[in-house]
């Protein structure tokens, strides 16, 4: 049986399909599986690191110490070079995201009395104005998909137009329910596909704003080759089901 986590993983992998020799920066278990899967299938030139400063020649299993030969050095300064040069492709998380793709990972609540302090804006502003940025949300809910984010960390399509951010390229959001893009009116969020077993109404009810909805497809299933790679090579410890339970 194909699990929801595996459907999500291939949806994440598809976001790197045309990346070429870009540095992949996945955040989260499912995006990390997706980046590895893309490198082994549709994006063989994708660059992966050991999570610190070394570029790896081989695609290693998730959660295991790498024995791969090192093919390059990727210190923080070089990561910034890749970022500003548009040669990086990131899949970040989002504590909040609105209809135009403005993302918040910094705080929940008002400036003077925040309810929750999160990790700060980190690299989200630079990511979202310099290279392709996608988002992963492990639990689709109205708490994440909000009418207005409490603080803008990653820049959405409306603000990108306002400031003339010509390299802004926020493309999709993959969640445990669906794949969404920004091809709705004025760059607003559109429901592109729902995962098998999910209804359009389910996604709408768990989204805090009106989604653009036209011809909604079903998210594609993994191929036999992709399933074998996920289960035997990339994630033999089945860490994926901890992030998206079967």
From TrEMBL:
Coiled coil: none annotated. GO terms for molecular function: CoA-transferase activity. InterPro entries: CoA_trans_fam_I, NagB/RpiA_transferase-like. Pfam families: CoA_trans (PF01144). Keywords: Transferase. Belongs to the 3-oxoacid CoA-transferase subunit B family. This is Acyl CoA:acetate/3-ketoacid CoA transferase, beta subunit. The lineage of its organism: Bacteria, Bacillati, Actinomycetota, Actinomycetes, Pseudonocardiales.
